[in-house]
Each structure stands twice: as structure tokens, then as C-alpha cells.
Amino acid sequence: MTNPTITQAKIVGLPALDDNYIWILIQGKHTLVIDPGASAPVINWCRANNRQPTAILLTHTHHDHIDGIADLLETYGNTLPIYAHSEAQLNFAFNAISPEQTLTFDDINLSVILLAGHTPDHIGFYWASEQALFCGDSLFTGGCGRLFNGGTAAQMTETLAKIAALPLTTAIYCAHEYTLANLRFALRVEPDNTDTQQRLTTAKALRAAGIATVPSLLSEECATNPFLRTHLPAVAVAIEHWWKAQTDNPIERFAQLRAWKNQLDATGVLEQDE
Ligand SMILES: [Zn+2]
Question: What is the pLDDT of residues 95-141, one digit of tens each?
Fold first, then answer.
């Protein structure tokens, strides 16, 4: 199988596992696979489109982002290169990348950005020419990732600020379909935010039709995602009201918002409409 030349860049999302997305980047002879948590969706798509993966890129090494790798190496050969953070714990040989370097695959130039917090060595890939950010489990559509493996609130606060500083037209390609639960939470934080109300209505219709709500635009996130809005008085007051504790520290405020969402996630109350 060869990779026919495609001049126009393309991004394809493959649903995998319960709610993951594997992103495929295609241009020229390259077919890059980001976070293959399963192999079958990738293999099936490649077969149907007469393509072959040319590299695997990892944002982090949680199992739902890497469990398809062994099968892909078996199918496409052990020479299929894997790119991951130099500190990544992985049972495969990989090309160690460091944040703030650029990965080049002919016409595809990806800036590596450290997006720590979900894990301490979580990275993202920013494809400037396509205005696309592949951000794994850092920023989610309507929300953000939890803190695992020693990732800290300070790291996630910095990560969210980094993403917010990208062009507002950036498309946010996160790794999970969590939009509905995230927006239900967003409305508990800001019940009067009409952008959020509207976005939830649209997202519900998309999901009912089996359509992905990812990617979103960074501009939408800035208007509706509470984790990008902790600097605003309405959000700060809501957090203060929930915890009956006031703070002016942005890291503490993020931690309070994250803890609020964790508390509601544990009850399952965000999984359905009230
Ligand atoms: Zn993860």
C-alpha cells in the first residue's frame, strides 16, 4: 500500500473506545496518527482510504491514547516512528521530543507546546497553517482535563493561559467527546451566559444526530468554557458561592473550579439534563 499524494491538508477524527477521538493528519504522502487508543478505527480508515500511517504522535501516555500502538506496529511494521515527550513512559522505542520544538513532515509543520497539568509531561501539537491545536486531555470543548500523575493546578493554569493566547480562530481538537457534560457544568457556573445556553442546544442536536462536537473554535471556548473564564467576576463569584471561600489567587481559583466539577462528576448529575 502506498500513500497517494494529497496536496490539500486534511484532518479526520476517528471515534474510538467510549468517547475518545483519534486524529489523523493527512498531507502529501504523510498520514500522522495522534493518540491511537485503539487500532481498529485507524486500520479500517487507512484500508478504506488507501493510506498508511507514517508516524504516531502522542500527547501523553494514558492507556486510552496508546493502547492501539502495538497492533499498529504489527500491521504497518516496527519502523513506524513514534513521537512522544522525552519523559514519556512507554514500552516502545520512540523519538523523544521536547516542548517548543517543531516537528516537520514535509509540508506539515507542528509546533510542540508543553500543556502540562493533566500529566506533568503532557504536550500538544499546533498546526499553524491549518490553525489547529491537538491538545489531548488539556483543554476540552467546554471544560478541561483533570489533574493526574502529579500534574498540578499551577501547571494547568499556565496551560490554559497558553492556549487562550493562541489566535481565536484556532480549532480545538481535543481527545474526548465530553462537550455535553462540560456545558451542563458551565451553565451551573454561569446560568445566564446566553452563548453557553446556545452552545449546549447546538451540541445536543449534534450528538442526537451522532455528529462530533469536536473541534470547536477557541473563540467559542473563551466565550463559554468556565476554565478559560476564571478571571471574570461572574465566574469568580459563582466559585466563591459554591465553596463559601474567597480567593484572589488564579491558581487557587482554578483548583476550586476543578474541584467543583470533580464533585459533580462523581454524582453523575452532569450526564443528563436536569
Ligand atoms: Zn489522559
Answer: 999 998 999 999 999 999 999 999 999 999 999 999 999 999 999 99
Ligand 1 centroid, distance to 26 Cα (angstroms): 24
What does the pLDDT read at residue 1? 59
**How confident is the model over 151-210, as pLDDT tens digits?**
999 999 999 999 999 999 999 999 999 999 999 999 999 999 999 999 999 999 999 999
Full residue range of the structural domain in which residue 125 is found: 110-274
Q: How far is the CA of 118 from the centre of ligand 1 (A)?
A: 7
The predicted pLDDT at position 2 comes to 66
pTM of the model: 0.97
**Element (DSSP H or E) covering residue 140:** strand 139-140
Grid cell listed for 46: 487507512
Q: How far is the CA of 13 from the centre of ligand 1 (A)?
A: 17
**Residue 63: CA atoms inside 13 Å, Cβ hemisphere, count?**
2
Cα–ligand 1 centroid distance for 178 (angstroms)? 13
Q: How many residues does the structure list for the chain?
A: 274
Which residues keep their CB under 5 angstroms from ion ligand 1? 62, 137
**Ligand 1 center to 62 CA (angstroms):** 5
What are residue 239's DSSP bridge partners?
Answer: none
Total tally of structural domains belonging to the chain: 2
Which are the contacts of 261, defined by CB distance < 8 A and separation ≥ 6?
143, 185, 270
Q: Are residues 92 and 154 in the same domain?
A: no
Q: How many CA atoms lie within 13 A of 218 on its CB side?
A: 18
Domain match, 270 and 164 both: yes
| Cα-based torsion angle of the residue sequence 183, 223, 114, 152 in order, rounded to the nearest 10 degrees | -60
